[in-house]
Design a protein that fits this description.
This protein is 9% helix and 46% strand. By secondary structure, the chain is mainly β. It has one domain (17-79).
Length: 80
């Protein structure tokens, strides 16, 4: 088994309220506010580390739903 470690910082903390637009099961933060947008509360944060890609992806539980949403930060970065 290969050992791996990582250091990553989520842009949000548990309890933060954000406006999010859900599109195809992916949450997009910072996009246009539409009828499908809503203010949500982040209730848990998971960091998923890919050894092959050397990448950390954050998944967020919102509003205590026990369902994780992938928040696409790359979309947010491209819009700036």
């Amino acid at each position: 088994m290969q050992a791996a470690g990582f250091v990553a910082h989520s842009p949000y903390e548990v309890g933060d309220k954000v406006n999010i637009t859900l599109h195809g099961g992916i949450g997009i933060v910072g996009g246009p506010v539409t009828a499908r947008s809503a203010e949500v509360t982040i209730t848990d944060i998971f960091a998923v580390h890919s050894v092959k890609r050397n990448q950390v992806t954050f998944m967020y539980e919102i509003n205590d739903t026990k369902v994780l949403k992938l928040v696409d930060w790359e979309v947010l970065k491209r819009e700036k």
